[in-house]
Amino acid sequence: MTEEAVLVFAGAGESILAERLLLGAGLAVKVMPVPGSIRSGCGLCLRLPTAESGKAREVLAGSGIFPQLYGRNLENGKSTFSEME
Question: Which pLDDT tens digit goes with each residue over 9-20?
Answer without folding.
Answer: 999 899 999 999
